[in-house]
Amino acid sequence: MAMNDEQPRMREHEMVTTTAAHRIEVRALGQRLGRTQVIEGLDLEVEAGVFGLLGPNGAGKTTLLRTLATVLGPSSGSLRLLGLDVADGRERRELRRRLGYLPQHLGYYPNFTVFEFVEYFALLKEMPADDVRRAVARAIERVGLEDRARAKLKTLSGGMLRRVGIAQAIVNGPDLLLLDEPTAGLDPEQRVGFRALLREIGEEAVVIVSTHLIEDVAAACSEVALMERGRIVFRGTPDALAALGDDASAGDSALERGYSALERGYSRALAEARA
Amino acid sequence: MTAGLRLFTIETRRNAGLWLFPVLVGLAWYAGHERYPDGVTLWIDVSFGIGMGMVLAALAAGGLAAFMAGRNRRRGMSELLATTPQSPAVREVSLWASTAIWGILAYLSVGAYFLVDGVRHATWGGPDPLPILVGLTAMVAFSAIGYAAGALVPSRFVVPVVPVALYLAQVVALLGWDRPSMFLVPWGFLESGHSVFTEIHASWALWLIPWLVGLAVVALAATVLRQKRTPRVITALTVGMTLAIVSGAMLLRMEQREGDPVPYDSVCAETPIPVCVHPAYRAVLDETAAIAGPVLAPLAGIDGAPQRAGQIAFGTDQPDVLTIAPWSSRYDTEGVVAYGVAADVIAPNRYPNPNFTSAGFGLTEVQGALILWLLRQADPAWATETLESRLPLLPNDVPFEEWDTHVPRLVAASERFAALDPAERHAWLDAHFADVRAGRLTLDDLP
Q1: Are residues B237 and B367 in the same domain?
Q2: A231-236 and B267-269 beta bridge pairing
Q3: Distance CA A176, CA A178 (A)
Q4: A237: helix, strand or coil
Q5: Which of A62, A67, A1, A195 is closest to B83 using CA atoms?
Q6: Of A86, A97, A123, A134, which to mutate for an interface test with B (greatest number of B Cβ within 10 Å)?
Q7: What is the per-residue pLDDT for B403?
Q8: Which of B217, B252, B287 is the last residue of a domain?
């Protein structure tokens, strides 16, 4: 299976030279859902590579990904993704051709086969008709489902469905890949393979992964950010995050301890500010 | 294969319509077959029979479309689809088309079956495209309306409600059969009288088709407009509304009328009183004459008796022609048909008993006795069947329970009349036939 090829983690200095076409720029982003201000004044620039998004539940990670995926229009601020202004209808459409998105809760059509489902999205992403079948086969192969390509989705396990979701996200060879909890439901072997796939895609594309699994970040991400209450409170390399940990911090790995220390520190600072 | 076609192919193959297809075929066949001719096959009946296939199938197609329109919402796919560049118009129309195609295929499959049967058996005229096209556009329009309802009303109940609502909307529009709204309903056109005697109401069909197309375009444009307002969608909505309003207004101004008569020369059997049918029914002339001929034979040359028995267009009664229907085994036995011929010639002015409380049908006893005589002299089995089936022979005011008391008097009178010398019988009929038909005689007047 292609996902089994563990490769050395890419470091910042190994990133490919990026241009506006391989960069996202978020300025003063505000996102209000109903009466709740989910994201407030968020600035973010990300270039090609795998970018991990960490944070507790309700921090705004999913809302940020949905905004970047153009599911939600920003309440305030501006987005320039891959050099394209999402406020402009024509540029947004061009962006969507180059976008891959895996939502937290993947819907699917139970009677479609794996091949048909991925092909369906390839067609909706307006891929050239001549390239579609080859690209679909390649995407299915990359997530290790080639032997289930003709199986109907309703016959697949949760982990396999997650891989189908990943396949539809990468079928168009996206320049911007947004994945919300992509490894949920994958077994350890599949997760190892998936990380390798992420690193491979991240060599040329901007990949943003929202996850609760620190080890995914450690293994796959060249850069990581921690979100708290709609803001980014830390940004750096996984090593930098790990360095924040100490013996008093909870966690089984250096990265988990760094994450815990950062969260504890932020919570304490917030409590002091409130007091 | 283009991307759009491939999208349509995938949607079609995995559509719920595939599973519902046998049901759609069954409904189209049932509704069409109900109107399909038995006995003589005429192209006009075949064409309207095909069109009638929509009456039930279009309701089911509407419900199916409502179900499919809610698919993305039901499956939690809306978010993912929103991130694709393909326009909602293409997505929605592709899903609708791949759903509607199953209803259309069912309708056309049944239509093809009827057409093949028509090619093999039809004896008169040729296929008429108008009722077939009206049925087809109704299938499209009902499916589009159902799709719009399913997309715009996020409720699980919309699927069963759509077919019921479409049915009720038609029934309400058709109530009374004399309101202008009936012209808006394809079912109304397909149920309207059609025959080989008159041209069909072509202008009705020709305005129904753009009306239905307009409704379909409005429904689909409204569905897309919910997601995205583009000049193209607004243009489609405007065009659809214009089409629907103009053609709807023309339909509401339409008047109920008989079509123009189509000239023809009857074909007749050489019976004492000639029995004639429209040439389209030539195939059943012998069967028709074999019943009507013997029943009417003793009346040949009687003053006031019909000169001819034949099939004539509705509403064009002629005093010297007894109107009879060509033979069909669909509804009646030979005895019942023979009774109808005898009753029509002896008691043309009988009227239905409005309360159905008595054995009679506005007949006098003399008329009942003479009907029995005509049947018995033609074929005793027909008289027996009339008596056993208790077909109307008695006056209106005779209750059913007194049937057995009164009928023996009629039987005795008819046997007495049958026993008369033919010349005497002929002379009596010649003198009294008009009084018999007018119901002015009592049983005592019968020799």
Answers
A1: no
A2: unpaired
A3: 7
A4: coil
A5: A67
A6: A123
A7: 78
A8: B252
